């Protein structure tokens, strides 16, 4: 939630690897990023969490609202849904 107070930042490297975050935390991260509309460059490291498909979707939908991002590096782990690996972004 502290990220919301940094609305004027233009470049962000955010490393949240290995925190065992779930879908709710993913939603909070996404909502915070939405409020930082001046970000043009974002490196987001989210490996080692348990967002699941819903959490990853929430982050993706939030990033769509960040219209000023011109450079994005998004590091997610593989997501398992019903015992099938469905996608991977690095």
From TrEMBL:
It comes from the Eukaryota. Keywords: Kinase, Transferase. GO terms for molecular function: kinase activity. Gene3D superfamilies: Ribonuclease Inhibitor. InterPro entries: LRR_dom_sf. This is Kinase domain protein.
